[in-house]
Amino acid sequence: MAWFMGIDIGSGSSKGVITEDGKLVAYHVLPSKANYRVVAQKLRDELLAKVALPPGDITYTIATGYGGGSVPFSNQQVADIRCCARGISNIFPSVRTVIDVQGMSSQVIRLKEGGQVINFVVSEKCAAGSGRFLEVIANVLRIDLKDIGPLSLKSKNPITFTTGCAVFGESEAISRVSEGISKEDILA
């Protein structure tokens, strides 16, 4: 039996998985805090508890993400673009384009068959293109983050924001709500 652990310490949330012989057997998600080492250790402890394993039974651990360098027990750190490409390719083999909206940035990855990265672009210029912006808009609209996609698909008259800035975007969303524009149209 071969047990592997993957730890992704992101700027907003931290994720972890354990696989046994290539099959997912445990996963856990925690909010990332100021101390990535502490979050990594807590994530590891939670994962190991789910499968009742001691740390020594893990064959190999890979760390990735914004705080991936802060995972003291990892055997290797791998760029998040490679990890994302490989993971998506394993779950959805026919996918050739990945859009990854992270806490502080967004990236678009083009893939070959087998999950090999052809090209990618990363946007880190402004929170407007990040998961944080989606959280801000969800808060303005008083909805759960998970409801953004389904609600946006119900739009009848999508509006266009006049700004690409997260700070001004929040103000504009508040104004649109006060104008009576529907949540669905704001989200679309």
Automatic annotation (TrEMBL):
GO terms for molecular function: iron-sulfur cluster binding; metal ion binding. Residues 6-188 form the ATPase BadF/BadG/BcrA/BcrD type domain. Its cofactor is [4Fe-4S] cluster. It holds the Pfam family BcrAD_BadFG. InterPro entries: ATPase_BadF, ATPase_NBD, CoA_E_activase_dom, Dehydratase_Activator_Redct. Keywords: Iron, Iron-sulfur, Metal-binding. NCBIfam families: CoA_E_activ (TIGR00241). This is ATPase BadF/BadG/BcrA/BcrD type domain-containing protein. It comes from marine sediment metagenome.
